[in-house]
Structures are given as structure tokens and as C-alpha cells.
């Protein structure tokens, strides 16, 4: 009884609840997908991985799908394209979201709830409806398209290689990154605001007293202290962007192929579930492994700094 009481009074439940959540909602589904990826598919079922026949226990794992992914340039280029567009979206969200979050954190406390509501207001509308709205805005005779063409910005986008020709804004890398930036911008602003709102302004006053200009104080104090918010926002934007399907399907084109569309084709067009599961497993590992390594070295650097 004392041992049970000590268990519940310790930190074990606090630590166990999130680990249990990750086990049930991430690890177990991931293992199911991995199991499908190494299985041999019959008509509508999968062959058993472990069989017992004539006193012999056999384990049958099929890794040919993973080898095919590594050998086929289509999959390699698709993974690289997904990472490229996700990184571009993350950078754009940071460039737009940081000033907005900074303004919100410095605004009057009475205005901050209204500003937060404005940031979360798009979530009150259907995600699919908002993406379709951008499709209309960027199409021919859409007012965003008319503004960009009328101001000559389409020539700049063409020179940068973001659109294939002046005036063609839909189904291009530009429309894809624009749609993902609009969609995931709140996920960058909210963690940045939470971090910047807790910044001790006395540090900026001390820097000003020591002769630092506002720009120097911003780069030397504000940005380093908001690193945790930048990392959190970047992860919240980058990770879902890598596997995004709806926005590339509606706003992207043949030149903006991403891994989410490839998985859709494997699942529903080719009906090749093991191949689609292999693509999904590689995508997850492509994201999780670098993040785990980064978090490990970050934790070690923080411990070394102490």
C-alpha cells in the first residue's frame, strides 16, 4: 500500500501519461504501418509475417519496397521536393510571423486577446474552403492575380523561377508555398507570441543603458531568448508541410509533386498498400531521426552551458 501511494505521489504519473499517449497514438499506429510495409499483399489481405509449419517457425519480411524507393529517382526527387517546399514555407512563416508575434507581445494587454482572436479566426472556417478560396484568388480574373499582374510582380516571380511564365500563378511553386504559408502561419505565430510575451523587458532597458541600439538589442537579446519559440514554431510548420496532400493537390501542379500525393496514388490509384506504407515509414523517419539528433545535441549543449 505504501509503495502504491509512493508511486502515485511521485513524478511517475506525470511522466507516464504523455509517454502512454505517444505509445497509443503514435508508436502503435506506426508499427501497424511498418508491418504492412514489410508484408506481402494478396487480393485484399496481407500474408502473415510469422508462420508455423511442420515444426518450423518462419519470419517473412519483405524489404523490396524500401530498396525500390532508394533506387527509383522519382521517390528520391519527391522526398527532396517535399523537404524543399516545407523548408521554404517554414522560412516564409518565420519572416511573416515573427514581426506579427513581436507586435502582439508588445501590444497593450487589453489588445492582446483581440489580436489572438484574429490569428485564430481562420480556424473558424473550413480548411478545405480556405484552400479553394486561394484557388479562385490566384486563377485568371482573381483579384490577387490581377493585383500581382497589374503591379508587375509576376515578372519578378518569373525571374525567380517561381512561375513558368508571366501571368501564370496557379499550379506553380509560388501558389503552393503561398497556400501552405497562409495555412500554417498561425502555428508559427502562437508559440512565438507565447515566448516573446514572457521576455523580461528589463534586459532591453539594460542594453539601452549600456549604449546598445534597438537593432543591436533585438539581435543580441530578443532573438536568442526567443530561440525556443522559433524552434517550436518551425517544427509545427515544417512537419505537417512535408506530408501535406490537400494544398499540393489543389494549388500545386505537376512540377510541385510532394510525397503526400505519391502516397495517395499508391494507396488509392495503384492499391499497393505495402508500397504506400513504405513511403510513409520513410517519410516519418526522414523527419523524426534528424529531430531526435537535434534534440539530443541541444540537450547536451544546455547541460554543458550549465
CATH fold call of the largest domain = MetI-like fold
The CATH first-level class of the largest domain comes to Mainly Alpha
> Total number of helical segments?
15
Oligomer class: single chain
**End-to-end distance:** 39 Å
The radius of gyration is 24 Å
Query: Uncertain regions: pLDDT < 50 for 5+ in a row?
Result: none
Q: What is the strand arrangement across the widest sheet?
A: 1-2
CATH superfamily of the largest domain: MetI-like
In which range does the helix fraction lie? over 70%
Give the number of DSSP strands.
2
Compute the average pLDDT: 85
Order of helices and strands: HHEEHHHHHHHHHHHHH
Outline: globular
How would you characterize the overall build of this protein?
The protein has 306 residues and is mostly helical. It folds into two domains: 13-62, no CATH class; 66-305, MetI-like (MetI-like fold, Orthogonal Bundle). The protein contains 15 helices and two strands. It has a two-stranded antiparallel sheet with strand order 1-2. It is globular and about 85 Å long. The two termini are 39 Å apart. The model has no long low-confidence stretch (mean pLDDT 85).
Task: Provide a short characterization of the protein structure.
This protein has 306 residues and is mainly α. The protein is 73% helix and 3% strand.
Keywords:
306 residues, mainly alpha, MetI-like fold, two-stranded antiparallel ribbon, globular
Reconstruct the topology from this structure.
Blueprint: H1 2-9, H2 12-37, E1 50-53, E2 56-59, H3 64-71, H4 73-106, H5 112-120, H6 127-138, H7 143-150, H8 153-159, H9 173-196, H10 201-209, H11 214-225, H12 227-242, H13 246-251, H14 259-269, H15 273-305
Antiparallel strand pairs: 1-2
